[in-house]
Amino acid sequence: MNPGTGGALLSVAIENEGVLHAAYMPFIEGGGLFIPATGDYRLGDEVFVLLRLFDHVDGIPLAGKVVWIAPAGTRGGVPAGIGVQFNDRDDMVRRRIEDSLANADPALRERPTYTL
To answer: I need a labelling partner for 89 at 20 to 30 A (CA). Which of 30, 47, 60, 103 fits?
Structure first.
């Protein structure tokens, strides 16, 4: 993953439903995703993400802005990273993620996430 500044390009692979549950941020308007990353990110920075989901072969490009920052050393075993709010054009990505989670094991809902 590239260190961050505005306009950074990130690549993230979500290996399974458990990781997707931990990373998805449904409480963000339009949806969002926690992405492990280090660098000098600021709230409002624009980032571009190539997202690879476990149940899709191709990478999904999306753009968004930083709305959450978890610095290195955050308590609770949360990795350093950023929360990226999807932009309006990425509604398909949000629906794809929510469909995957809707069909996931209900026990996942009880697991902690990287954010709340």
So the answer is: 103
What's the pLDDT band for 112 if we cut at 50, 70, 90? confident
Alpha helices in 1-116 (DSSP H): 17-23, 91-102
CA distance 47 to 64: 6
Residues 6+ apart with CB under 8 A from 73: 80
Residues whose CB is less than 8 angstroms from the CB of residue 67 and which lie 6 or more positions away in sequence, other chains included: 28, 32, 43, 83, 84, 85
Q: Where is 81: in which H helix or E strand?
A: strand 81-86
Q: d(Cα 13, Cα 102) in Å, to the nearest integer?
A: 20
CA atoms within 13 A on the CB side of 98: 12
For all residues of the chain together, what is the average pLDDT? 85
35-72 pLDDT per residue, tens: 999 888 999 999 999 999 887 778 889 999 999 998 88
Alpha-carbon distance of 104 to 109, in angstroms, equals: 9
